[in-house]
Amino acid sequence: MKDYVVRGTDKGGNFRFFASASKDIVQTASDHHHTSPVVTAALGRTMTAAAMMAQMLKNDNDRMSVTIKGDGPIGGVIVEANTKGDIKAYPYNANVDLPLNEKGKLDVSGAFGNAVMTIMKDMGLKEPYIGQTILVSGEIAEDFTYYFATSEQTPSAVALGVLIDVDHSIKQSGGFIIQVMPDASDDAIDLLEEKLNDFPSVTTLLEEGKTVEEIIEELLGEVTFWERKEIQFSCDCSLDQMERGLISIGEEDLTEILEEDRGAELTCHFCNKKYNFNEDDLQGLLDEVKNNK
Ligand SMILES: [Zn+2]
User: Fold this and answer.
1) Among 186, 202, 233, where does a domain finish?
2) Per-residue pLDDT tens for 127-140?
3) Distance 237 CA to ligand 1 centre (A)
4) Distance (Å) from CA 105 to ligand 1 centroid
């Protein structure tokens, strides 16, 4: 079954929620970048959150990105997502090997180290929205909770999980974001908090065969699902984009590449697709730079 994000509200109108099944997008990212398990978990959790956040945007051409940069061995991750359900992502360092943390889990927090998370939302306005928070836990779900509380003033419960098999393939992946509506009743909030206190992890429930819809219903009771959006790992890189990248380095550097290397190979960070430029291609781009002076 294809990955997706569902969104909806509970019957009482106390909460809105987003939930995502994200096994395939995480598997594809892991395949593209040959990630070690802790990097797969870090990237997968961030991708799952971004997939849901992109569905909070209003317009067809809106897009958003999550950038986490830290002093830990992973260096950072970049995830981009749009309202159409396209997601792409890459880690700075794909191969990080750390001992398990004290809970016996992959040490995502240790992989990031001291880090900052930047959320950029491009909603077609003159300036994109940019929100920045420090990574408080490094386990990602708590960090999004912190981001929503501080940058968007929206109390939220965020759960994200990636379960990795012994052969490093993705066994389960998913998550949810539940947000408190402005006129939610205190009783409803207390009840949800109580339930969340000893609620199993998302991957435990997925592993039991539950869907993310069923997980939401366990937490919120009767709900209305407003929309279900399929999501996919999709990169929109193109030859044109790579050409513009080469042109942007300027006449001097381009001449140097042409004369010394007689060609260039550019690799897309997001999907690892390679673009090759031979001497003639580079000469053509150089002519273009000179003509546009
Ligand atoms: Zn690409």
Assistant:
1) 233
2) 999 999 999 999 99
3) 4
4) 31
Indicate the residue among 233, 258, 279 that finishes a domain. Answer: 233
CA of 234 to the centre of ligand 1 (A): 8
Judged against a pLDDT cut of 90, whether residue 194 lies above it is answered with: yes
CA 143–ligand 1 middle distance (angstroms): 28
pLDDT bucket at 51, cuts 50 / 70 / 90: very high
Residues with Cβ within 5 Å of ion ligand 1? 235, 237, 268, 270-271, 273
Does pLDDT of 293 surpass 90? Answer: no
Neighbours of 165 (CB within 10 A): 10
Alpha-carbon distance of 217 to 208, in angstroms, equals: 15
Q: What is the DSSP letter of 293?
A: -
Q: How far is the CA of 39 from the centre of ligand 1 (A)?
A: 19
Residue given tokens 């380095």 in the structure block: 249
Residue 146 Cα to ligand 1 midpoint, Å, equals: 31
Give whole-number Cα distances, 15 to 12, 73, 140, 202, in Å. 8, 38, 22, 19
pLDDT tens track for 64-108: 999 999 999 999 999 999 999 999 999 999 999 999 999 999 999
Asked if 172 and 266 sit in the same domain, the reply is no
Whether 222 and 251 map to the same domain: the answer is no
**Which residue segment(s) compose the domain that 49 sits in?**
4-233
- Residue closest to 174 by CA, chosen among 1, 51, 20, 44: 20
The rounded Å distance from CA 184 to ligand 1 centre is 43
Number of domains forming the structure of the chain? 2
